[in-house]
Design brief:
binds zinc ion, L-fuculose-1-phosphate Aldolase, nine-stranded mixed sheet, binds Dihydroxyacetone, 270 residues, alpha+beta
Length: 270
């Protein structure tokens, strides 16, 4: 059995959490990440017949039965993941139709998965239906995206178009746009279900006055997705109060679509 602290999925998780903290997206215990793992790669490091303890999830997700996830812990600080991965992260396998999480490694202080576990797992279900290669769900609190939800219309088309207009790359990186949830109580199955519903049509879901969810095929790519949206929101917050002289036009967006071989969300461009 190989040492799990040398596993690429643990190292990549540590690097990503640290990077997110360094970007200022995850103050205190803010933010959470879940990474879907292959059974074969888990078996290189752990005896999967031996569960440390079983933790009830409070929801059901039969589609994920038997699946393995590396997940940040509830109340844990991204800042500390690099110093004590075995305390701040846990590796679980879902059982009983998703109603139980069997802990195979981590949460060594008796902890458990993030309070946003329902939103993560339900989002995995939704994204896997659209994209079988999806592996990551990531949540964080980037300042400019958050700020934007106070001053910008929350209409999804309008919000998306504004972000697309702020940086040339945006429409290429997230052609499906950004879906938006109004303020809701976090940490509940209700916000989990609402987030998953929004994940059916876009990889980015803004939680107004709270933060953002991103989904993707690996940690780097999902980080980059949120990074790009946050950069666009930053430009918006720099210019929103200034007289606008020009922007990226819909005609130019169509040029980007053609050149990069992407298709903007139906009805979002003129
Ligand atoms: O766990 O970000 O949404 C901290 C959070 C909750
Ligand atoms: Zn949050």
């Amino acid at each position: 059995m190989k040492d799990i602290l040398t596993a690429p999925f643990i190292l990549e998780m540590i690097r990503t959490a640290t990077n997110m903290y360094d970007h200022g997206w995850d103050e205190r215990n803010g933010g959470n990440i879940s990474l879907l793992l292959d059974e074969a790669e888990v078996k290189e490091y752990l005896d999967t017949d031996h569960a440390i303890r079983a933790i009830p999830t409070g929801f059901s997700a039969p589609e994920l039965d038997g699946k393995y996830f590396l997940v940040t812990g509830t109340g844990k600080y991204f800042k500390n993941v690099q110093y004590a991965p075995e305390v701040n992260l846990g590796l679980v396998r879902l059982a009983d139709g998703g109603e139980t999480a069997e802990l195979l490694w981590g949460y060594t202080d008796g902890g458990k998965f993030t309070s946003e576990f329902p939103a993560h797992m339900m989002s995995h279900v939704a994204r896997l239906k659209v994209d079988p290669n999806n592996r990551v769900v990531m949540h964080c609190h980037p300042a400019n995206l958050l700020a934007m939800t106070y001053v910008h219309d929350l209409d999804e088309r309008a919000f998306t178009r504004t972000l697309w207009q702020m940086c040339t790359e945006c429409i290429v990186v997230f052609p499906d746009g950004v879906n938006v949830l109004p303020w809701m109580l976090c940490g509940t199955n209700e916000i989990g279900e609402a987030t998953a519903k929004k994940m059916e049509t876009a990889r980015l879901v803004v939680w107004a006055q709270h933060g953002i969810y991103g989904a993707g095929k690996d940690l780097d790519e999902t980080f980059g997705l949120i990074e790009t949206a946050e950069k666009a929101a930053e430009i918006y917050m720099k210019i929103a109060h200034l007289p606008l002289k020009q922007t990226i036009t819909d005609e130019q967006m169509h040029q980007l679509e053609a050149h990069f071989g992407v298709k903007a969300r139906e009805g979002y461009l003129a």
